[in-house]
Each structure stands twice: as C-alpha cells, then as structure tokens.
Fold this protein.
Amino acid sequence: MTIKGIIFDKDGTLFDFQQSWANSTFEFLLTLSANNPHKLNDLARLLKFDIAHKKFKRNSPFIGGTVAETIKLISPLFPSISEEELWSAHLYHFESVTQVPVNNLHKTLSYLKSNNYCLGVATNDLEKSTLEHLGKEGIIEHFDCVVAADSGFGAKPAPTQLIEISRKLDLNFSELLMVGDSSQDLVAANKVGITAIGVLTGVASKKDLSQHSSIVLKDISKLASWLETYNS
C-alpha cells in the first residue's frame, strides 16, 4: 500500500531531545529541590536523569510521558505542595524552552509537502506548547493536524492519537507512516497496523527501537529516500 500520510512525534523526532530538554530539566530539578542535594538526587532517580552529565537516561519516564504523568511521579517528594502547584511550576519553567531542530528539518518537511504527503503530529506534550514550538520554528504550516496529550484523544502508547489523525486526514492505517524516537511512538503504531519508523534523535538506542520497528533511521533527513523506495 502506498504511504500518503506521515505522523511525526515532536520531541526527539522533529527536535533533538537532549539538546532541547536536558539543560532546562536540570535547572528545573535544581529549582524544585531548592538546591538540597538529597532532594535533587531523589528527583533525578525518579526521572532517571543523569545529573553529572546533565542528560536523560534511555529509560527516563520524562521522555515519552505526559506532563500529568511527570507531576504524578514526583509529587510524593513534595507532600506540602499540591499537584496543581507543581503543574504550574512545570509549565512556567518550560514555557520558554528553545527547541533545537533535527538535521534538515525544514528541507525534509518542505520536500514532503511538495510531494503531496499529508502530515500530522502526535505528541505526549501539551497542545499549547506544541503549537508554540512548531510556530516558533516556522514549521506549523506544514502540518494538517496536531494532536497532543490534552487534545482529548489520550496519549501514546495508546493508539488513540493516531486513530484521530487517521480520521482527520481521511486515510487508512495502511496509508500512514508513524515516525518517532521512542517505544511509545512505535508501539502505538503497531497496535493499529501503521507502518513505524524509529529515529535516533531521541534518547533510545537502535536496539531499543528495533524491538518495535525493523526500520531505524539516523534522523528524518533520511526519510525522503526511504519513501521513494517504499512507494516505487
């Protein structure tokens, strides 16, 4: 079946995950811990964040999780602070994070649109920040639809975001491709029979992604040549 539409994850797929989020997350953990080294270590342990190198470990729940899941995970460390307050602190801290685009992001998206592919984004980030990130980078006009964790269609690895994008694009699952940097992205696609491709611009290794997809690319710049071969 010919692929007519492509669904992208955002963080780690359109934007390099470590470069976009690691330093800001380290600063967030410092702020939450009030520079208490024991609290900082506890937070890092829960989020599987390497403090010494200021980077996420491969199995960090922050990578594929939602904001709500992150807050739920760390809230027991702050019994005197409500989840609502932690949520507000999270949003305030990360609202100005600058996303670092992956290799040839603009060129790749322009190529895909010029070749009449329908494009969507399925992300476990929030809708408001997702639209801001896409807009700030100047790529939002390339996408026909954006579905986020708070858009009303659940979060990956459930396939519900992909099902909604399929409906919005009016394409069958067999006509869609899911491109993502984490197992959540690929598992969601596998559940409904959408072809899945992993990319190595997140934190997961090729071995991690190969468990859920036989195709793993260095980054999305390799996508155009793969599609030409697949659709020929």
In short: The chain has a mean pLDDT of 96. The two ends are 10 Å apart (CA to CA). The beta strands are 5-8, 49-50, 55-56, 118-122, 145-147, 176-180, 195-199, 216-217. The chain has eleven helices and eight strands.
